[in-house]
Design goal:
4 domains, globular, Cytochrome Bc1 Complex, Chain A, domain 1, disordered N terminus, seven-stranded mixed beta sheet, about 1000 residues, 23 strands, alpha+beta, 31 helices, about 40% helix, six-stranded mixed beta sheet
Amino acid sequence: MAAGTPQAEQAQASPKKNAGLRDTAHTNKQAPGQAAATLTPAADGPQATAVTLQSPDETPWLYEGSNVPVDRQWRFGVLDNGLRYATRKNGVPPDQVSIRIRIDAGSLYETEQERGFAHLIEHLLFRQSRYLGVGETIPTWQRLGATFGNDTNAVTSPTQTVYQLDLPEASPAKLDEAFRLLSGMVQAPVINEVNVRTEVPIVLAEKRERGGGAGERVATTSRETFFNGQRLADRTPIGTEETLLAANADTVGAFYKRWYRPQKTVIAVAGDADPVALASLIEKYFGDWKVDGKDASAPDFGDPKAPAGADPANPVGETTVMVEPDLPRSLTYGVMRPWRPVQDTIAYNEGILMDSLAQSLINRRLEARARGGGDYLYAQVQQEDVSRSADATFVSFAPLTQDWQAALEDVRAVIADATTNPPTEEELAREISEFEVAFVAGVEEADVEPGAQIADTLVNAVDIRETVASPQTVLDIFRGMRDRVTPEAILERTRKLFDGEVIRGTYVTPQEGEATAAQLRKALAAPVAADGSARIAASTVSFDDLPKIGTPGEVVQEGPLGVLDIERVELSNGVTALLWPNQAEPGRVAVNVHWGAGIRAFDKDSAAYIPLGETALISSGLAGLDQEDLDRLATGRKFGFNFTVDLANFTFSADTRAADLADQLYLFAAKLAQPEWDARPVIRAKAAARISYDTYATSPAGLLNRDLETLIRNGDPRFATPSPEMVEGTTPEGFRKVWEPLLKKGPIEVLIFGDFERDQAIEALKTSFGALPPREAIDPATLAANPEAPEAGARKVLYHRGDANQAAAVVAWPAGSGLAQVREGRQLEILGQLMMNRLFDEMRERAGASYAPQVRVDWPNDDVGGGTIIALAQLRPDDIPAFYAAADEIARDLATTGPTADELARVTEPLRQTILRATTGNGFWMWQLRGSTRDPSRIGVIRTLLDDYSMTTPDRMKALAAKYLEARKPLEIAIIPEGADLPE
């Protein structure tokens, strides 16, 4: 996300690993000193009661038939009308309440004539309902501080429809209003001919923008192949154009009446409020929901079945070969089994955990083979329960050449070894150790799991007919089964993973005549010899055996930064650091390392090495270790090693823990001081870049991803996706020549925020970054010039090779960069949101031309140029002129008339809430304070951040629109089908 926007400044925590039990978290607590402004806690209300809550000695409805320990943080209840619910207290982020309303009906519940209706009804609920007039829903949620698409949304899957609301500053009055409005949406949407006819074009626009082209053809054919004979083969949530255009109020209303019933509804609420008070609101607004008629039964989704006469020992069934010239080679086969509801017991989850261990073992071996020169770029095994339709084990890989048979045999041989011979004790111990670390981290971080994620976990557990469990329960079950996790037990589970009713496969190739369905079927049925050469040999790599960075440094200066309790530290070799020990995220330590000049250090001749560096620099090794050695070193630990090339610096980043902090810092420092230059990761990164390039041209969205950043910078190749010709011109030797000097140049800044001991971190800094030799200065004369703004008023046309009804349009105005005027840049974000709301109304609500037009404001905090205001939309080619006209008219009106006060409130309140929620996490402060050890001006601009994003006037917006939108001629970009003419 671009610098300077709240979305970029709100760094999100990485999701933790999960295997086996679906886990939820314990009650969350807000760490002191985290918020940028004082927040008023949500009141619980006077002695709230809820008569439908199940008592603590009852078995909650979710746990019936299960012996999994009940997560008592949840309170469960059942209304008299059959609606089930669950509520819990959660304080992450503070004052927010997350509401999920699940309807047990998705696209698999539709008849042939109703395809797309489940999703269409989702749209209709947002259009008009009992308490909300036409077009009032989104503005109403915005006035309550909830952004559309992020805080309020809905998702339709094959098996469920879920309505989502994350309500900020959830006071009792706002909660009452939110439940009232939601009850009206769910119980009494207005499904009439006008609303249906208005909403269908919007759904078709969504269908057009999210599908089509080569990718959609492959997805459709793959789904039809793998789920042959089942509803899932042709029941996608988006539906078909034929059935949607035929929809009317009666037919859509019939679907609604059949499935929108209290007995088929589950409400999950997690947030900063009393769970009993939340239960009482559910009773108040959903307790009198009554519907006529008998409850409908779910249709039969069908089972995967082998063809008649198939060999039970090798039941290869349907296979498909797809020729798509713009897509890379990929082969997937699935071992398909019927899905059945399970008794979600401890024993069942122990089996799931063993399955996960078995898959991890195989995937590690497949990766080792790929690194060592296998016939494929990547390969993965994954067991999935798919839409309550199949229990499948999928094997996916990308052949490196047209010899797909060799790649298939390579992959199958690794799997054959896993199904023939048990793993070694050392291999299994390694995977167990990795799982242990992940589950322990889950326990440590339970208090900061967001309420939205917890609520999502519960409704998804309902969907798959399973329970939820706390992270501690997950860890206890895993530890309790350790004695039974033997090589022989894993071998037995592995064999079951590859035993099924039928095996089906698909192969995508860019080359005609390379394969046939019969050849693929024969190759899948052919016997294969087990090959154990990809097994990871038992080997120990210890930090004690690694070379020291150098002579430890000393602290020469330390003191408060002046923000919260953050401390600035300077070491004797010039390295600076920010330290902030805090309990905002228990068990988690975030580390960022910034150095160098970033993109400015490259010129047009070396530009192709930028993305190769982000992919291969870390994998090329350090301190005598290659990637496999680094993986061994990480066993049983929590390390990260992310690398990004930013506009003005390079960044290493990681989430670790206090016990591993010193070693994490060593790895980062060793990469700078003792880099290795293994050629294999570079060769592999080149292959991946070549293979993926043509896929961008298969859709307008792909070309936007590929070319937008360079187009808005006047074709600067440093921001381009390298073409195959550019990639072909790179070499491992050239990679080292470019990157080796960059690792040595520029001052280093280290940020350590989280749950750690200050004195231990200081010692670790001394022996790692403090032990580095003096850094080479960056000569400003060697840096490339800032990117140029595109030619004013220019229009560029790109051509995609996707569907003829797909196009995209962009309008880009130049903006600014740097801290000197960053407050103006933040105010531009408000202007951008105003423009996006108007584009949404014009292009989606009125014209049905675009599903999700966007406006993006980029104002880099570093003074590197390239700031922009970008409006874009995916649409039909014929609607491009309408988009340009709408953007021009909106810009002109904002510059001459300005917004209304209500318009402004609908934008500033959600932005204010976004900032307030962001300030409760360490990632926000790390982003804001990067570079502040050497540039104190970065500290000063933090103090006005909340006001800058949330306080303004219509006149201020009018002036900014005149300055940036009206007075500057924008660049226009159109992406249309090959062979088409740009509409005038």
